[in-house]
Write a structure and sequence with these properties.
By secondary structure, the protein is an alpha/beta fold. The chain has twelve helices and 14 strands. The structure holds 3-isopropylmalic acid and magnesium ion (MG). The site of magnesium ion has 2 residues, from helix 9.
Amino acid sequence: MTKKIAVLPGDGIGPEIVAEAVKVMQALQSDGLDIELEYGFIGGAAYDEVGTPLPAETITLAKQADAILLGAVGGYKWEELDISVRPEKGLLGIRSELNLFANLRPAILYPQLADASTLKSEVVAGLDLMIVRELTGGIYFGQPRGIRSLDNGEKEGFNTLVYKESEINRIGQVAFDIARKRQGRLCSVDKANVLEATELWRETMATMAADYEDVELSHMYVDNAAMQLVRAPKQFDVMVTTNMFGDILSDCASMLTGSIGMLPSASLDENSKGMYEPIHGSAPDIAGQNLANPLATILSVAMMLRYSLDEATMADRIENAVSKVLDSGLRTGDIYSDGMTKVTTSEMGNAIVAAL
Ligand code: IPM
Ligand code: MG
């Protein structure tokens, strides 16, 4: 049966990088991949079109789809808007509406890019790390929240960090299952020495470990985890953490691989329906100039094929094509180093299609 893919290009470099990922999907379509694409608005682009960053039609489209491909949202243009209609609200809203609680952010260093990392190549060579980030709870969504005026007239901003056992359990299960299929090591990251919500996080993870005797669970405070990620990142196999800690640590981990422009992500619900997006943002400073690296988005298509469409062989083909193109020396600006061939966004996309 034809699988329906909702395509939400979004803002900034979003449309450019998604266009390259679409070329890759179309190439696979002519090789028998049975999908149809349907486009929708999200983020600033949706706000400009209909006055909200997450139109009802987009939610319906995403709910009816088998998988969603998203570019990026946000830009200078919308920074002054009220927080309730800012582009980021569109992204948070769709994650929440679709119950996409499990965010998988792999950080894999392509050997060809060992020199592109700001870290010494021996520190990062061979890096293959998976960050599992809780995506629909924690301080991002906790109530109450807001900015209020105190009696003395001073303003106070407040947010709430809250996790239910059931929320910790379901993300824990995803992380343990992934660890089991990899090297069997799971590090749960928290701030249990200070924050009760993550004290419960630690206790709940520890309790779950009894059901996963083949997985070695460890715990780490988030400040130490940030330090260890740049000191000795290869000690990690799978990390599982809260929404906000995962946001921060995944950006940090991405730089180990040379560029944030290389990393895909999957956000999954209980039934492995997913939304796939690069972990980088909309990069408004280079938008519209054919400069962005489309590889994170193209690799997100590979994740989609693997996790939502049950097409692992096609996923392998994309990943091998990326490797082949890197071998041939083609680089967008973000991963460029001396002696390589600098290419544009669309040239990189074309090269991947050719290498498929
Ligand atoms: C991410 C982004 C988002 C987040 C923003 C754009 C809301 O940084 O996906 O990591 O904080 O989750
Ligand atoms: Mg982020």
